[in-house]
Write the structure tokens for this entry.
Amino acid sequence: MIKAGIIGATGYAGAELVRLLLAHKEVEIVWYGSRSYIDQKYASVYQNMFQLVEDRCLDDNLEELAKQADVIFTATPQGYCASVMSEEILSKAKVIDLSADFRIKDVSVYEAWYGIEHKSPQYISEAVYGLCEINREKIKEARLIANPGCYPTCSFLSIYPLVKEGIIDPSTIIIDAKSGTSGAGRGAKTDNLYCEVNENIKAYGVAVHRHTPEIEEQLSYAAGEPVIINFTPHLIPMNRGILVTAYASLKKKLSTEELREMYQKAYQEEYFVRVLEEGMVPQTKWVEGSNFVDVNFKLDERTNRVIMMGAMDNLVKGAAGQAVQNMNLMFGLKEQEGLQLVPMFP
């Protein structure tokens, strides 16, 4: 059995990790880390775990945890993982970090967008960006994984096939994204109160959202040239889900059939990326509670633009599910183990 520890187990992403790992036949959770609830029963924080988890919450002592666990998940705020990372920890356990601390390879870009000093830049080059569909072989050999962000995962997978084929002008990419409120975390914030969110939709982080450089960096790798985008996220009144609608100009005239071939080529072997049939649009309700990403596109012949669309659950493929997918690869397990979840509806 793989022994797993979770730091930040009482946040939304951490709780989702608990849910998924409890059902994983190859994993035993040995550490429910939560600085806010030390020595409280985990099931008193999340009552859905009543009689399923008898453990109490522990602190965030990674040095001690590394002695007990084979893999450590850090579902923590930006800056935490970088502040505690050490060779001693990585020599004993694999680490999958769900924050942005090791996603961006240029430390100056990270510090500029996140507004904090990076405490362990020596590990940035080693960390593997954990998007399994792109970096599968590197993930298998990694000891430190930078689990991708939710918006970047959905945005990148929606756009990737056409960027990789070089048939869209990357300077014209505009991404309009919408997320449920769980993406903002469990902390008490006025903007996330029921009366603030209900019956409302709003853009936020306009032109300055910190997922922008992560999306640009990964698209640049795919395009083989620097990519700069417009990215605008929106908060919508639902618990889970991300919907991305992205726009770009084609470099030449292409047919719907030619574009579809590019999507099929990119994802025909990918279990978790579902290319929808022509005329179907991705919807969050058809991926909720699952690790699937539904993608599709629409060719606008009148403007010679293509509209690329994607939908996924921000807590599963956008966080915990993707982390488990990475863990499976790192330990030589079947990639879908513990993640063959049928989307929930209604």
Summary: The chain is about 30% helix and 20% strand. The longest strand covers residues 242-249. The chain has two domains: 2-126, 151-313.
